[in-house]
Amino acid sequence: MIYTAIDNFYLTDEQLKNSPSRKDGIDEATETTLRIYGCDLIQKSGILLKLPQVVATGQVLFHRFYCKKSFARFNVKKVAASCVWLASKLEESPMKARQVLIVFHRMECRMENSPIEHLEIGSQKYHDLKTDLSRTERHILKEMGFVCHVEHPHKFIFNYLAILETPPELRQEVWNLANDSLRTTLCVRFKSEVVACGVVYAAARRFQVPLPENPPWWKVFDADKSGIDEVCRVLAELYSLPKAKYIPVFKDGDSSTFSSQSRDSQSQPVLKEIPQTSPTANIKSASATVNTESGGSEDVLVKAPLDKLKDSKKNDDELKNMSVEGEAREEPLPKSNSDHRTDASRERNREREERERDREKEGRIKARDRDRSRDFDRVRDQEETERDKDRVRDWSHRSKDRGKYLGHSEKSRHPSSRDWDYHSSSYSSRGKDRHRHQSYT
């Protein structure tokens, strides 16, 4: 049983030799090639997604998962995609499932030298891939016991180099070796400190940089010489291998792969042969039974059931032919990928045309409303102008009448010259009479 803890997920050599893939008949070379192939997919996808910190965590999760599950039970491409998706969440750089699926679909098309087809978001293929991605992620979390803590050797490298006072040109080589070590099973066999010491020792040997041996420098970093030698041996063996290629060892029917070419090759229908019993054999067996039961003397009794069997056999054949013809008429032919694509494009064109029709209809309705509002405004303006003209006419008539009235009142209020003469003469005559009266008195 494999023990899993926060900082402990390490296997022995015997456990690796008896891995689930070996139990399913996969040899060591094939398992190593598939491990390297899956790590290559994770590294390339991390570069395309611009998430370099996710690559190391995804590769460690990939190795841990296949220490508990077989390559024959889980597709290496789907597991690699799920490891990238899960590692992006663990490294606090979450990516959408759509982005991960598009990147892996494009990589697989390039690896298979097939024409690059766009992965449509609303297609059935995308839905199946997304379902498989989330399902595989749940399998990984279940096998890990939801313990996904990962400790990389990269965080120890610079401290070790600073303590050993190595030249600066050694840092890049040590970093590259640490990255390459994640393609192997070193991350599930040794602690990160031992792997860091191993890559430092390998880089120092390559650049011929002396390291202190009295006392041994690796004891300061809690490592042993055997572990360091094993790390160097595994890295040397890794560099001697050819470029890893995909080997189809997945046993179950893979109905939703990333590329359509592999999906078509793997989803070929299997015809099953239905055993059919010959009617003559049934007739012979029936006649034999009748002969054994009734004897040879009863020929009349034997011929009657034989005739009935022949008639029933003819009726059955006619019914079978009719049913087969009906099924052949009713069963539709399976559509190919090109038919599905053309149907999808037709639906998109139909939807686009419907949208354009709706927009034109809305535009016509808006134009009609706009014209109506303009006509209404024009009529209202005309009515207002007519009202204003009527008001002006009324005001002019009223002003004329008022002028006549005012002129008449002014005449009545101010007497004429004739009236003034009359009054003045009357006043003068009254004054004369008054003067006369005073003189008489």
From TrEMBL:
Organism: Quercus lobata
Stored Gene3D superfamilies: Cyclin-like
Bias type Basic residues, positions: 432-441
Record-annotated membrane-spanning stretches: none
Basic and acidic residues bias spans: 305-422
Listed Polar residues bias regions: 275-295
UniProt GO BP: cell division; regulation of transcription by RNA polymerase II
Family: Belongs to the cyclin family. Cyclin L subfamily.
UniProt keyword list: Cell cycle, Cell division, Cyclin
Assembly, per entry: Interacts with the CDC2 protein kinase to form a serine/threonine kinase holoenzyme complex also known as maturation promoting factor (MPF). The cyclin subunit imparts substrate specificity to the complex.
Cyclin-like domain mapped to chain residues: 40-142, 155-237
Full protein name: Cyclin-L1-1
InterPro entries: Cyclin-like_dom (IPR013763), Cyclin-like_sf (IPR036915), Cyclin/Ssn8 (IPR043198), Cyclin_N (IPR006671)
GO MF: cyclin-dependent protein serine/threonine kinase regulator activity
Pfam families: Cyclin_N, CycT2-like_C
Region annotation Disordered: where it falls in the sequence: 257-441
Low complexity composition-biased segments: 257-268
